[in-house]
Amino acid sequence: MATRLQQLFAECGQAPWLDTLSRDALQDGSLAAVIAEGVRGVTSNPSIFEKASSGSTKYEPDAAEPAA
To answer: CB under 8 Å to 58, separation ≥6 — which residues?
Structure first.
């Protein structure tokens, strides 16, 4: 059975997107879960990434790698 988001795309050609992305969503499977529900894309903006990276240590290893 199709989800409401999948029906939205199939019946109306509308592609639902998330307007946020986080490392946690990538790592814990929640992004994969909403994709399975019918989300067709993800977007974000620089201020969201700046806030995420400055408020968490989760990005430090990847940020330090290019500097090395």
So the answer is: 23, 24
Q: What is the pTM of this model?
A: 0.67
Backbone angles phi, psi at 3, to 5 degrees: -80, 170
Q: Is residue 57 classed as helix, strand or coil in its secondary structure?
A: coil
Which tens digits make up the pLDDT trace of 7-57? 999 999 999 999 888 888 888 999 999 999 999 999 888 887 787 777 778
33-62 as b/e, with b when 16 or more CB fall inside 10 Å?
eeeeebbeeeeeeeeeeeebeeeeeeeeee
Query: Could you give the CA distance from residue 60 to residue 63 in angstroms, rounded to a whole number?
Result: 5
User: DSSP string spanning 27-52?
Assistant: HHSHHHHHHHHT--EE---HHHHHHH
